[in-house]
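Readers of this paper often ask what the protein records in our data store actually look like. Nothing more is needed to write down the fold, since each code stands for a local backbone conformation. Below, we set out a record of this kind in full and without editing:
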Amino acid sequence: MYNYIVIEGNIGAGKTSFATRFAEESDARLILEQFEENSFLPKFYEDPARYAFPLELSFLADRYQQLKTQFTTTDMFKPFTVADYFIFKSLIFASRNLEQLEFGLYSKLFTIVSSVVPKPDLIVYLYLNLDNLKKNIQKRGRPYEQNIQFEYLDKIQNGYLDFLRQQSDLRVILIDTNEIDFVERDNDYQWMKDVILQNYPLGMHRIQKPGLFPGLY
């Protein structure tokens, strides 16, 4: 059994929805990213060049503080921990959003911060194509997200996939969720839950529900 599971994905992939239900039904400790409290986020979508660096710094500080607080406090009554983000997403987003000099400085800070945060036993990446990501973003209706472009979603998706393919020391499962609905269809959710609770060797594993067409990833 895994002690620390991370549910990851692009913007609009449904990671918070899945992580919340999965943790509740498993009686696990749940860690949710508090991104809506970040005052730089709406400003970044209006003017990325100006606000990318302070946004990424503030996210890194917030994620570090939250994870450090959570993992220095043990909960003997929770069998494991589920989070809807991995601290390395900070590096992934920064690599796509920052200029070279800014990213160089950011990387040094990230190395210091990330070294004291535990790595997950399993990373679950919810893969959705760009059209479905955009539909989910529009459906949930956050005003500052409505102008997110396909190019930005594609940039972030490629950042995640490039990073995850290189992680030979982590367990990563990439689940194609394009043709399933784990929010509205219980059988889809249960299938995903069963998939996640299986044992996996280190490395990246691509998974698709039987009977579906191959995904484009």
About this structure: The radius of gyration is 17 Å. The chain has a mean pLDDT of 93.
